[in-house]
Structure formats: structure tokens, C-alpha cells
Amino acid sequence: MTASDNTISDTLLHWYDEHARDLPWRARPGEPAPDPYRVWLSEVMLQQTTVAAVKPYFEKFTSTWPTVDALAAAEEAEVMGAWAGLGYYSRARNLAKCAREVAGRGSFPDTEAELRKLPGVGDYTAAAIAAIAFERRAVVIDANVERVVARLFDIRETLPQARKVIRARAEEITPEHRSGDFAQAMMDLGSGICTARAPKCLLCPLSAQCEGRKAGDPAELPIKAPKKSKPERVGQAFWIERDGHVWLVTRKGSGMLGGMRALPDDGWTAQQDGSAEPLPVGEWNRLGAVKHVFTHAALTLSVLRYEGTQDPVEEGEWWPLDRLDEAGLPTLFAKAARLATAQSG
DNA sequence: TACTCGTGGGT
DNA sequence: TACCCAAGAGT
After folding, report:
1. What does it catalyze (predicted)?
2. Number of folded domains that form chain A
3. Whole-model pTM above 0.90?
């Protein structure tokens, strides 16, 4: 630890004391560390997800399940339904599993290494919980920290190879005390000032110490490998309506949208177009299509309404149309359902 | 390591 | 509009 490194964390913590965002899962200045349950829940929700998107879900979860014991006692289907729309549904599956583990052992583990063993808790989240909830010294590295550190030290190596150097630098500037506040300060800085595009260097408390700024244009850091092209897939979803109810299935497995309630479909995946025949056989009326873009594929999903009288073969349930908003459909199928109900009234 | 896995907002 | 991106984890 050099004198220069101390200046970075001290400067940033002073800035944080004045400018920290007031977020529902955070302690206010001067308050003790927040409830580990709320820290864990927020950190999982925030994985690859914006603060604005998380807020209403965090409020819903904490009001429905105020403690990890309450969440552990919930039906997994209830948890999946409550998560619907937030994306990356493996997080919800692991959330339920993790809650049961923690409830079984009585409390959250309070070290980074033990936290790391919990399902859905990786390197970042373990460090964040240890630092923020348990006030342990931990080096917390997320995409914000990567960006800020790459710019601070003018690291021009390409990601992901640059991660080793970035971690070493982050280790050097992380203070022994208040490392949780330091991590959250880095995230606030990355979110509002040291942004991916058009960073506001004139407002940055670290601008005088930023090697990337001295070297030229910090906005080009970190340098990332080129992205793969995104395949375009087509599929079909089936709208089977009877007596004010629609037939819904629950998707199997841990793959895409696994565990989520959904419209029956033709088996499309991110790797392949759908191919299954509409079941039960009969007359189908194409209502239209919805487009939806996933991380690694774009899907055009045609919605076909069943006009016959046979019963569905696939396992599922008749869901009342007037409570469709409570079905917990992921956004893709919510779009498809909206299309169908708009036409069939 | 490289790929899979959602969604909504910003530019 | 068509990208890019966001408090990553699991495999």
C-alpha cells in the first residue's frame, strides 16, 4: 500500500459520504451495517440488472418475505412468479435454494469463503456481502470496478485477459476499513460519473489521479473483445383458450426460462428454430407475432390460436384470463399473451 | 475459457 | 434504428 493508493480510497470515501445514493437496501450514513438478507437479496437481483429495474422487485420480495426464513418457507413457484420479468431466472431458482440452505443452518455465513459456497453466490456477490453486511475487508469487483480501475490505471490490455491486472490494482486500492463503502462508492462512481459512454470526468473526484485521463480518452477503456453476432430464431407459441381460461405450462429444467410458467410452444431454443407440431391437432389461427431479443439470440414468436375442441395433451393448467397478470409469465410470453388477448378480447 | 442465460434503458 | 450495456453465476 503506497501513499498514492491511500489517497484514492480516502478521496473516494469522502466523496461517497457526501454523494452516496440512497437505496432501499443500503444503510444510511452512520447507521449500522444492513441486514445480510437484504444485502444478499439486492446483490443477486442486481446481477446484470439495473438499479431502476431492481427497486420494485426488492420492495415486493422484502414485503412478501421479510426474512430469509420466510423466503425459505415459500413455494418455489411463488418465488419464480414473483421474479417474472426480472430475467436470468436461474437467479430465482438459486435464490430459493440458497434461502433454504441459510434457513437450515440458522443464519448467513459471515466470511467471503463460506458465502462463496452458497448457490447463486459467485466471487463478486460473496465479496460484496462480506464487505457490506459483515464489514469484512473484501475486494469487490464488478463491471463498474473493472471500468473505473482500467481507466484509473490506464490498463489497455483487452478484457477478459485484463482481469488479472485489474484485480491486482483493485486489491491495492481497497482500504482495510470500510471496504464495503469503498465498493459501493466505486459502483456509484461507475454508475453516475465514470460511465461506459461519455464519462463525466469534470465531476469525478478521482480525475486528478486518473492515468487514463492523462493518457487521452478514458472512454475507450476498458477495451473489450468483439462480440459474436446474434442469431435470429423463429418459433411458435400456442394460445389455447376455453371458458375464460388459457392453457399454461411450466417450463422444465435449468435452460432458458426454466421453471417459469409459459405458453406452450414448438420447442424453439436460442440454438435452433422451433419444429414441434401444434398439439392437439386441429385448426389454428395465426394471430400475429412478437419479437423479443435475448442476450444471445433474437426470436420472432408467432402466436397461434387453437380453434378446435380437443383437450391439450401436454401437462399444464387452465389459468383464468382475468388473473393472467398474476401468472408470472416472463416478458416474452407476457408479450404473446397481450397480443392474443388484444385480439380475442 | 467460452458459452449460456433476460430485460429494459440509453445513445 | 441498432446497437451497447447493467452490482455475474454456472457449466
Report:
1. Hydrolyzes free adenine bases from 7,8-dihydro-8-oxoguanine:adenine mismatched double-stranded DNA, leaving an apurinic site
2. 2
3. yes
